[in-house]
Amino acid sequence: MAEKLKEQVAIVTGAGAGIGRAIAVGLAKEGANLVGVDIQVDKLQETAKEVEALGRKFLAVRCDISKKEDCDNAARETVNEFGKIDILVNNAAIYPVKRFLEITPEEWDAVLAVNLRGAVQMCQAVLPEMVKQRKGSIIIVNSGQSRIPSVVHNHYASSKGALLQLTRCLAAEFGPRGIRVNGFIAGFTPKTEQLEKLLAEGAFPQGFDEVIVKATPLRRVPTPEDYQGIAVFLASDDSAFITGQTISVDGGQTMP
Fold first, then answer.
1. pTM assigned to the model
2. For 196-233, how does the pLDDT look when each residue is reduced to its tens digit (9 = 90+)?
3. Which of 48, 191, 198, 219 is a plausible cystine mate for 203, CB 3.0–4.6 Å?
4. Domains recognised in the chain with CATH numbers
């Protein structure tokens, strides 16, 4: 079977664990070489092992996506190593739990700096290369809280809602230059570092699995690997005539 992403070069933010690691491995399975971006570069070692075991190349780059210079450096190192950038997966995000009236200005700014500005800055870093090539695919990992209200993640939900419109705006602006911009909505996913932290803090006293399964028509909790297929689809020519879309991949939790 032909590899859908043979010799493509993909940058995945937050690739050190969870959904980011699973997506990186999923893209590698289809032939892509990977650039793993994470603020904790040591976490990328396991991702590198999985990608390289598939016969693909892996470049680890330490990057705090809230800092523009780090994003620019990640793109520059990618081009220096591979000569091009074909795919960007904006996955890195933070989602602290806080009631709205308790959120400080500093906490609000910190969440939007990573979740929204970080995605913007990564896009700004890679788009000049994609424009030169007149081809590229940007994938934005989103959340159901971009479409439904949240009472404990106001800053997170607001940042993700903004990403819906960013996806549309970039698709409209860069479509004429051969670049597609899409996203997908991930469900509440265990085996991710931040969700495990929330569970440890007692964020779901009634039981995570029970809450999520009841809210999911497909009646199971997701795994990071559930997002490999959609990432490959949106990165490859299988979605060559799709842009500006955000697809729900959450077992039916959100149905636009």
1. 0.92
2. 666 666 555 555 667 777 888 888 888 999 999 999 99
3. 198
4. 9-187+222-249 (3.40.50.720)
